[in-house]
Amino acid sequence: MKPPVCVFIQQPLKGEHTLTKFNELGLSPAILESLNRMGFEEATPIQKKTIPIALEGRDLLGQAQTGTGKTAAFGIPLIEKASPEPDGVTGLVITPTRELAIQVAEELNRIGHDKKVRALPIYGGQDINRQIRSLKKRPQIIVGTPGRLLDHIRRRTIRLQTIRLVVLDEADDLLQMGFIEDIETILSDIPEKQTLLFSATVPPDIKKLADKFMTKPAKIKIKDKEMTMPNIEQVYIEMAPKQKFDVLCNLLDFQAPELAIVFARTKKRVDELTEGLNKRGYSAEGIHGDLSQARRETVIRRFKDGTIDIMVATDVAARGLDISGVTHVYNFDIPQDPESYIHRIGRTGRAGKTGVATTLTTFREMEHLRHIERVTKRKMTRCSIPTLAEVMEGHQRTAIENLMTVIQENDFRDYIELAEELLDHTDSVTLLSAALKLITKEPDKTPVHISEDPSFPGKGKGNRQRKKTVKGKKGKNIAAAKRKPNIKKRPQDKRKQKAR
Questions:
Q1: Are 162 and 88 in contact (CB under 8 A)?
Q2: Which end of the chain is less enclosed by CB atoms within 10 A, N or C?
Q3: pLDDT at residue number 500
């Protein structure tokens, strides 16, 4: 039986638990005003549990996935504890990537707007002299990557004596990327501090770091059911590898996402997908590690303000992106592991909104997809490839929406006289049908080449590696010998054979 084509209408979640309102957490009027302007009224679970403890001045170890609202969870206490009068840097946030540093600083600046508290991002790839000039304007909070922070500490352009609150964001990534020594150096140089550590996972190295630099930390863990993001519809479509790009285009046409992120496994595939999407008339740009920091910032800014509708990205380049309004995530390549999957789909369904995450999978990747389902404790819905008729239906729906938008905006007055002239010669139904046909996008089948991706993370069928043939001194095939071991049979085995 053919699986259904999945169409999702964003609706409030059933059985959603009651959230605590921010005005119940004892926050200052200035911060409440900023949160209200940002559209935040209710605290997420991690915010509800973290903010009161952090405001008490206690150390804290929080385990939560991306997309759970942890930036505001540590950002609100940071802003509350900072003074509007610049008297040195009082808060420090350490992040693993430049993109995350920028994102965190932007959110902190929105939260601190009414209290007049400023956060400055410090990261490699940006002119250090420009950063020094910005530091002279005396921001209260620094958000930075370990390497560039150490550069400024050694230059004494950042002094640690005034810092009272330190946040390690995405701590497991910090350690995985080899920043453990840098972090220990920075933390050792801060005399008296409150430390908040946030991590998606808590491996032994994280525990050692907490034991070394934290004092009886409160431990908060968001439950699995809260981490798998129930407000995100998770689906998959099974297909042959050569079908992937056309299926992606069909989905974009049929679902008409407002903002979408497409994830690819390699930089090369990001470039090819971006070029292919633009060839077929979509507004897309890509980000990956080979782009300059300025270029990446430009792409992210254009995506945020809606200049482009689709951003194609690798996992590393998109790490920590916090962009509101992303309605759809497409896994063009299946993620390497469940953690990457959770990170990817967490780009949508943020701040209480719903989203759709679609994984394009090949037949041999199904076992790996099932592994992701088992770890995340969430079954994905199987959907079919949209047909040409369904794609056309999506185009027609978009055309009607565009037409109704023009009517609602009353932006057609200059065409009324011309329309009346046309109605004198043609009936209204024929005229409107022709107009809809004219503004409806036809499916574009411009040839696009996407390189094959031989690398595959799973261990399912079709992914068996060839065993190398290794010959010994006598020229025997050792691999074959291993496959057919010469095992001596016990006497009873011989008797059984004779009996047969």
A1: yes
A2: N
A3: 41
Of 103-107, 200-204, 307-311, 409-413, the range with the lowest mean pLDDT is: 409-413
Q: 3-state SS of the chain: helix, strand, coil percent to 5?
A: 45, 15, 40
Cβ within 8 Å of residue 123, ≥6 positions away: 98, 101, 102, 144, 145, 148, 293
Question: 419 or 230: which carries more pLDDT confidence?
Answer: 419
CB 183, CB 94: distance < 8 Å: yes
Distance CA 234, CA 378 (A): 8
Same fold, 22-223 and 228-462: yes
Domain ranges of the chain: 22-223, 228-462
* Confidence tier at 412 by pLDDT (50, 70, 90): confident
Helices (H), 284-386: 293-304, 315-318, 338-345, 366-376
Separation CA 212–CA 190 (nearest Å): 13
Contact (CB, 8 A) for 272 and 453: no
Topology of 228-462 in CATH? Answer: Rossmann fold (3.40.50)
What confidence score (pLDDT) does residue 270 get? Answer: 94
pLDDT at 495 over 60: no
Going by C-alpha positions, the residue among 43, 97, 102 that lies closest to residue 74 is 43
Query: Taking the domain 22-223, which CATH number applies?
Result: 3.40.50.300
Residue 475, pLDDT above cutoff 70:
no
| Beta carbons of 367 and 459 less than 8 angstroms apart | yes
Q: Collapsing DSSP states into helix, strand and coil, what is residue 458?
A: coil
The whole-angstrom separation of Cα 63 and Cα 219 is: 8
